[in-house]
Amino acid sequence: MNFAERGKVFLAPLAGVTDRAFREICRSFGADGVCTEMVSAKGIWYKDKKTADLLTFGEKEIPCGIQLFGSEPEIVAHAVTHALSYHPQWIDLNMGCPVPKIVKNGDGSALMKNLPLAEQVIRAAVAAAGDTPLTVKFRLGFESDVSGEFALMCQDAGAAAVCLHARTRSQMYSGKADWSAIGRVKTMLSIPLIGNGDIFTPEDALAMFETTGCDHVMVARGALGNPQIFSQIKQLRETGRYDLPTPAERLQTARRIAETMFLYKPEVLAAAEAKKQVVWCIKGMRHSAKYKNTIFASRNGEELFAVLAEYEKEVLAHE
Ligand SMILES: Cc1cc2nc3c(=O)[nH]c(=O)nc-3n(C[C@H](O)[C@H](O)[C@H](O)COP(=O)(O)O)c2cc1C
Fold it and tell me: Which is the catalytic residue, given 97, 163, 214, 281?
């Protein structure tokens, strides 16, 4: 991945969401790069079976990064070496996760309280990554804003680029992301900066580029049920306007996500996980409340696709 070429729009890593199917669909809508869900370096060390699934991606997702989390330099370096065997276009270290289960082990955003250890982890990962770019994704800080100092440390330790989610750990996902911090950190760095936080519309993406001067942006929650946001951002940038998907197109996207999920996951798992994504895609559409209930009540793929077909028929009758 060439982070020096500016203006890219990335899909963020989202645990439980950015699986193969969703990444593939986001790439098809023009995301310039996608990333796996976070993968535990310790899980790789202890050869946990589920981690292999998390590390796997296909041709249609490339360029795809692999995101790792961990706080023991040797274990993280081992995980990087293992991850390289999947040929990712970059490796990202998660130093921003706020979830208590992760933080209490000293991982994720807990590393923002311990810069010397974070630096050791990054240096070990950079050495193991060799020619593959190593990036770091972090927050403003754990409680207070240390993002400038932290970003400079990442740069000195050899990161190819950094991604700043402009919230503290204490904020979790509440309040507004502080885009002014993204602008401030940008002026301090010579490596590229990816801005992240509160891009929910194409206008937000262009505003983040403009007001912060960041090199790239990363979209997370704004892509849930709306992978079209990537093509809309490009269209807005190029033409000053963008198309909103019709209800039929939204249902088609929901169907594509579900069908792709069934390609890559065992039936029972795909049926359970597809429902959530389908419901996000139809949110706010006519009769979506009624169909939401039948979608959640569906017991397998056959039932789920039957509900979708019924909804499609109803939508087409009204278009
Ligand atoms: C459900 C969920 C799962 C997430 N999983 C990850 C993850 O695995 N790795 C990561 O670095 N960030 C993760 N994040 C944080 C997002 O990547 C992103 O930084 C954050 O949501 C802010 O961006 P947004 O305002 O565009 O949503 C997650 C966020 C949510 C809501």
Answer: 97
Ligand 1 in reach of 219 Cβ (< 6 A) = yes
- The verdict on the CB of residue 178 being under 6 Å from ligand 1 is no
pLDDT at 319 over 80: no
Q: Which residue puts its alpha carbon closest to atom 6 of ligand 1?
A: 14
Q: Is the pLDDT confidence value at 49 over 90? A: no
Give yes or no: 26 in active site: no
Q: First vs last Cα of the chain: how many Å apart?
A: 42
Q: Which atom of ligand 1 is nearest to the CA of 167?
A: 22
Average pLDDT over residues 66-93: 98
pLDDT tier at 299 (50, 70, 90 boundaries)?
very high
Q: Which CATH number fits domain 9-239: 3.60.10.10, 3.20.20.70, 3.40.350.10, 3.40.50.2020?
A: 3.20.20.70
Residues 6+ apart with CB under 8 A from 33: 1, 8, 10, 11, 63, 64, 65, 89, 90
* Count of all residues that appear for the chain in the document: 319
Instruction: State the DSSP string of 270-311.
Output: HHHHHHHHHHHHHTTSTTHHHHHHHHHH--SHHHHHHHHHHH
Q: Which residue shows structure tokens 């050791």? A: 120
Distance CA 42, CA 50 (A): 12
CB of 220 sitting under 6 A from ligand 1:
yes
**Does any ligand 1 atom lie closer than 6 A to the CB of residue 222?**
yes
* Nearest C-alpha neighbor of 163 from the set 134, 143, 142, 126: 134
Average pLDDT over residues 51-80: 97
| Closest by Cα among 59, 58, 63, 64 to 37 | 64
